[in-house]
Amino acid sequence: MNKQKYGFPQHATSVIDLLETVKQKKQKDIDWRSGKAFCLIYYPGNEREENIKKVFDQYYADSALNPTATPSLAELETETVSMCADLFHGDEQVCGNITTGGTESIILAIKTARDWARKNKPNITQPHMVVPDSVHPAFFKAFHYLNIDYTTVKTGSDYRADVAAMEKAIASNTILLVGSAPSYPYGMIDPIEEIAALAKRKNLLCHVDACVGGFILPFIKELGYPIPRFDFEVDGVTSLSADIHKYGYSPKGASVVLYRTHELRKFQFTLYTKWSGGVYGSPTITGTRSGANIAAAWAAINTIGKDGYLEMAKATMETTERIKQAVEQSEELELMGKNDMCIVAFKSDKIDVYMLADELNKKGWHFERQQSPPSLHFTVNYIHKNAVDEFLADLKQAVADVREKRMAQMGNKLQSAMVKGLSSILPEGTIARLQKNSKSDLNNENTAAMYGMLGALSGTDDLDKIVLDFLDTIYTAKN
């Protein structure tokens, strides 16, 4: 049997050596502290970070598994949930829990709806849910894990949920409708009031996914931006998820899932009272929960406060408007609809946006590439206020550079068009080996053709195989 590439260490390694190793490894990561990453990271600034860390450190080793052992963590969690319920117009009945992230919040909301239906709609043996096709993939993970049937409905021309189409998709076993505030790909708030009214009329539950927008939408609305009602202010909304570790600016590992009533939340809990080890009750998916992340979420909300969130929201929206104006003034780029908050997505029918992405990567910028149609996605937050001038200058130059590369662009389009015909004969592991043999740094400038190929294969079994192989390669130790 071959030995693992990294064996278990026999002796302790000095922290100095470990820190040096980490320093070298982190050089491969995105440089988010400079504001050059429009994805993954939400940063409140150095002073606020240090304040949150001080509280985080107080609970570094604590577990929230048993609230009778750490009642202070139970207090911090319930206080945080109460503050969030207040932010989202909840009355004294609105309740919930802190989770590890949006995915867990969404899975719990789906589990709650399933178990609610078991009691309140006992004739349904196979529950069904209706979602717009712009919802986060965490919903499909939940459907897979929990054996839920579902129907996805195409968004309208404005990239928002089509409520009429959702109504047509409702079946006799439907138990839940979902809307996003906003959807991640486009930054559009679905018509939550219409979806919730439909759900109430049909005696269904209605979940609002506000994971990305929940902790900024209330503040930009107070600043005067036209944000529609999306939370418990809307009659018919029965649950809501929102990530504190996004625009709430807490460290990663903190989201909140809220319910209209305590009775509804009880369907979220897991109980097992026949265990030889005693009675086991768990509010969320995980048993052991990091006390540090709960404390840090509480600390973030309290150390920033409403005034701080308003200040950061104002700066973030001003930065967003500058980026949108630059896109609108460009002859080559086109915004993906009229977004509601600080997510900017744009496409182009004049240049290859994946080539544009490569040019921006070369300049150190990082963001998301999207498909159907090909587009680029930028999540703007507070840290970008100091980098926007440099970004706009680089964007203008990158557009000009791509405009001059017509022949290469034609080659990428031709290669993408050929993929569907060639995919069935590609050797297994082709894409992973291409990735392995290409530059390993984040500024790889030759990905346009690959993203074009992935877009051409979108939704096919061939792409599933390619991505599975890629994930397996990424999470395998390398020399």
CATH class of the largest domain: Alpha Beta
Biggest sheet descriptor: 7 strands, mixed
How many structural domains does the protein architecture include? 2
Question: Quick one: CATH superfamily of the largest domain?
Answer: Type I PLP-dependent aspartate aminotransferase-like (Major domain)
Mean pLDDT: 90
Annotated CATH topology of the largest domain: Aspartate Aminotransferase, domain 2
Order the strands across the largest sheet as they lie in space: 1-7-6-5-4-2-3
Rounded to the nearest angstrom, the distance between the terminal CA atoms is: 18 Å
Which regions contain 5 or more consecutive residues with pLDDT less than 50? 418-427, 432-441
Q: What is the CA-atom radius of gyration, in angstroms?
A: 24 Å
Beta-strand proportion: 5-15%
- Which percent bin holds the helix content? 40-55%
User: Could you state the order of secondary-structure elements as H and E?
Assistant: HHHEHEHEHEHEHEEHEEHEEHEEHHHHH
For the secondary structure, the number of strands is 13
Structural class: alpha/beta
Bulk shape: globular
Number of helices: 16
Overview of the structural elements:
With 479 residues, this protein is of the alpha/beta class. The chain has two domains: 55-302, Aspartate Aminotransferase, domain 2 (3-Layer(aba) Sandwich), CATH 3.40.640; 313-474, Aspartate Aminotransferase, domain 1 (Alpha-Beta Complex). It has 16 helices and 13 strands. It has helices spanning 15-26, 46-58, 71-87, 102-120, 138-146, 163-169, 192-201, 217-222, 262-265, 291-329, 353-362, 388-403, 406-422, 430-437, 448-456, 461-474; strands at residues 95-99, 128-132, 149-153, 174-180, 205-209, 239-243, 255-259, 270-272, 280-282, 334-335, 343-347, 368-370, 375-379. The strands form three sheets. The chain has a seven-stranded mixed β-sheet, sandwiched between helices. Strands 10-11-13-12 form a four-stranded antiparallel β-sheet. Helix 2 packs antiparallel against helix 10, helix 13 runs parallel beside helix 15 (448-456) and helix 14 crosses helix 16 (461-474). The chain is globular and about 65 Å long.
